[in-house]
Design a protein that fits this description.
With 98 residues, the chain is an all-beta fold. The chain has no helices and 4 strands.
Length: 98
């Protein structure tokens, strides 16, 4: 089918002051073999303090067309967030896949 009913359970767990894990468990319904598997996603957000020994960057001048507006000031940020996403299919029962 082009679409299916699903139940999604979300849970957030703070492992430390720097790490947050968000877990999504999706169970599909009304499709073949839907009682035999579920999809699990884990999003891990890690906050990392940047090295304070870096020299501050200078802002680009108005005539400088080489600057990237998304990167301007990024080197001066105190923290960086790293996002890792993991997905897996958890088999609940055996399946012949005929």
């Amino acid at each position: 089918p082009a679409y299916a009913k699903a139940v999604k359970t979300q849970r957030a767990t703070q492992l430390s002051n720097n790490i947050l894990v968000i877990e999504h468990v999706t169970q599909l319904m009304d499709i073949p073999f839907s009682d035999r598997f579920r999809v699990i996603e884990r999003w891990v957000l890690e906050v990392v303090k940047n090295d304070s020994t870096k020299q501050p960057t200078t802002a680009a001048t108005e005539n400088d067309n080489t600057s990237d507006p998304l990167q301007d000031g990024m080197d001066d940020a105190l923290y960086t967030c790293k996002l890792s996403i993991h997905a897996e299919v958890d088999m609940l029962k055996s399946c012949s896949w005929e």
